[in-house]
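Incident log, support desk, overnight shift.

02:14 A customer reports that sequence design results differ from what the structure should imply. Their input is reproduced verbatim below. On-call engineer (initials T.W.) acknowledged and began investigating.
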């Protein structure tokens, strides 16, 4: 896909006809209306998306047109008939690392596994400059934009309480610079041990407040693992976030150790505190090592605490059970189906891209879904699980008016139209896409 040529004005759409949206987007009224053509069946209802001032005005079952009125409509500027093609809201990449990305080519040999990747990254970090970080992160944002991403979240490594990393300033500035093209959230990724002192914990929380003053969308983060487990430090982290009205986005139990207890502890503390902000927990691989009854209890606390889970299938496959010259036996995926069945918000995302943690990746959330569907044997990839790469509202702050579900009336008309994918085979054949941002069609099309 390419950006529209500068000499040709970007078409502003006011009507997208015959779009096949996933079931989770549609209201009950629309779902109950059979397709007027009778060809697609009640589960394949197509809709018309009405757009006004760059926002969704309403979604209605596809109108029935005569041949003459169809020709007349098609000739109107701002009308795009997508002829039953699959359409998703703008994509969300809920978990990335723009500070570390695209460093792999200069690292030499990287030994397998999460802890070796961390060691390799620490050596490379000594060479980082503002220019280097900005160039790599900007390339990543361009790739995301090409994929149809309208909301991306990045973590940013912190390793000392008193020193703000160079990348934090760069990423906050990029969030402001890119705000008209996509939403860039930032999370300071801090080892749990740095929260051991309550005064330090407060200082780390203050850094998030300052970042939100540069541009909204910053959350407090942490890396929680059995190698650094410290319940007092977790208590400090959560009390500071609660007191300062911060949202949390935590790396939790990214390991196969059944004794890992980060997720359970976070959920229990959130309930005890009456935590009011959004809590996002990423990875939680160790949940799959628990017994079924232990996992069920933990998931109930997660649900009660209103926690969003983010699964990172590509990096889990690369980093978990990783030993040189040995085929991995375990794949590290958390219990996504059990969580979804209980009504817990579950997202999938890219995580690391072409750095020591993960050699592959392209800032296309469809990659994560492509791996996640066979890995977790996910049913209804389009109608149900596409939520995992679209639900911006599952990341939004509970301290401000919560973001509405994508494509609700009044929300931005950010859309991705898939030229060749079918709902039965989704997400296969999803590479050919048209992007609509704020009602503007960004790609040239032969459909119009
Ligand atoms: Zn991560």
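02:41 Re-run completed on a clean worker. Output:
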């Amino acid at each position: 896909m390419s950006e529209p040529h500068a000499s040709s004005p970007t078409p502003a759409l006011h009507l997208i006809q015959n779009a096949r949206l996933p079931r989770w987007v549609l209201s009950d009224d629309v779902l109950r209306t059979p397709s007027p053509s009778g060809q697609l069946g009640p589960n394949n209802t197509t809709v018309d998306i009405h757009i006004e001032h760059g926002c969704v005005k309403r979604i209605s079952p596809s109108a029935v047109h005569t041949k003459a009125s169809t020709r007349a409509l098609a000739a109107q500027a701002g009308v795009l008939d997508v002829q039953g093609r699959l359409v998703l809201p703008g994509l969300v990449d809920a978990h990335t690392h723009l500070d570390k990305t695209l460093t792999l080519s200069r690292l030499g040999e990287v030994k397998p596994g999460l802890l070796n990747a961390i060691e390799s990254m620490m050596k490379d970090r000594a060479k980082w400059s503002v220019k280097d970080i900005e160039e790599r992160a900007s390339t990543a944002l361009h790739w995301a934009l090409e994929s149809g991403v309208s909301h991306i979240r990045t973590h940013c490594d912190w390793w000392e309480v008193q020193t703000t990393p160079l990348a934090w300033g760069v990423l906050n500035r990029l969030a402001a610079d890119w705000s008209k093209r996509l939403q860039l959230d930032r999370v300071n990724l801090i080892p749990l041990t740095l929260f051991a002192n309550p005064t330090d914990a407060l200082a780390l929380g203050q850094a998030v407040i300052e970042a939100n003053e540069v541009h909204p969308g910053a959350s407090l983060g942490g890396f929680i693992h059995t190698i650094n487990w410290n319940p007092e430090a977790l208590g400090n982290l959560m009390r500071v976030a609660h007191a300062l009205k911060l949202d949390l986005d935590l790396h939790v139990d990214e390991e196969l150790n059944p004794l890992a207890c980060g997720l359970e502890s976070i959920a229990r503390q959130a309930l005890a505190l009456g935590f009011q902000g959004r809590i996002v927990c990423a990875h939680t691989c160790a949940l799959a090592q628990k017994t079924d009854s232990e996992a069920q209890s933990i998931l109930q606390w997660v649900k009660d605490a209103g926690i969003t889970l983010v699964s990172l299938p590509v990096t889990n496959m690369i980093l978990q059970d990783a030993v040189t010259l040995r085929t991995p036996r375990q794949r590290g995926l958390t219990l996504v189906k059990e969580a979804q069945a209980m009504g817990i918000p579950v997202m999938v995302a890219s995580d690391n891209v072409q750095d020591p943690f993960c050699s592959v990746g392209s800032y296309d959330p469809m990659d994560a879904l492509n791996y996640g569907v066979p890995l977790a044997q996910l049913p209804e990839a389009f109608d149900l699980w596409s939520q995992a790469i679209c639900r911006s509202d599952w990341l939004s702050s509970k301290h401000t008016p919560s973001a509405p579900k994508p494509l609700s009336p009044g929300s931005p008309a950010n859309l991705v139209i898939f030229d060749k994918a079918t709902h039965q085979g989704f997400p296969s054949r999803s590479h050919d896409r048209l992007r609509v941002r704020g009602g503007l069609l960004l790609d040239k099309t032969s459909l119009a």
